[in-house]
Amino acid sequence: MAIRVLLVDDQPLLRTGFRMILEAEQDIAVVGEAGDGVQALDQVRALQPDVVLMDIRMPRMDGVEATRQITGPERNGPAKVLVLTTFDLDEYVVEALRAGASGFLLKDAPAHELVQAIRVVADGEAMLAPSITRRLLDKYATHLPSGDEPVPDTLHTLTDREVEVLKLVARGLSNAEIAADLFVSETTVKTHVGHVLTKLGLRDRVQAAVYAYESGLVRPGAQ
């Protein structure tokens, strides 16, 4: 089954370029396009895409609000959102991740990175490179807790090993890297990550990383 993709951007030329790249892949099918967030919501309901390639800054409804409605509790379908941004530290990226986006990618990223990002997100993983994760969260360090605040009650539901895993997720490590760091199998790491997401009521690794910083479990700039 091909990965069904909806392109959302207010610039038709960019949508055309993305379509050309993606339609060259046998396992990806572009099922529709939208020029703003309002159209995107209509298209998601009508077309049921697997992945929405979402621009941030658009008229009528921006990508952050559209993402929130697509991935929120009232969501109608399996769509995951991959945010596109012109700047790698766009001020709206953090809000998009909090809203439920599964990751973000630069608009000028090489074609193979765009294709790989869509495959990763469609597979249920987060598309957020470790280096970008750290730079992004460090950028917004002034808006995040210092680490001196009380730890949220929900964090106490985690085991010591689950806390370790959450910290490594927040640093942007993949399951394989976490497994190597903790000397356990990758399957064990996947199990721990699943428990963390379930216990904290989070939908993916991106939200887990944001939670770790917002709760003060991990301090911006810490290794």
UniProtKB/TrEMBL annotation:
Cited CDD domains: LuxR_C_like (cd06170), REC_NarL-like (cd17535)
Residue ranges of domain Response regulatory in the record: 4-122
Signal peptide region: none
GO biological process, one term: regulation of DNA-templated transcription
GO molecular function, one term: DNA binding
Spans traversing the lipid bilayer: none
Residues bearing PTM 4-aspartylphosphate: 55
UniProt keyword list: DNA-binding, Phosphoprotein, Transcription, Transcription regulation
Transferase in keyword set: no
Residues annotated as domain HTH luxR-type: 151-216
Protein name, per record: DNA-binding response regulator
Source organism of the structure: Streptomyces mangrovisoli
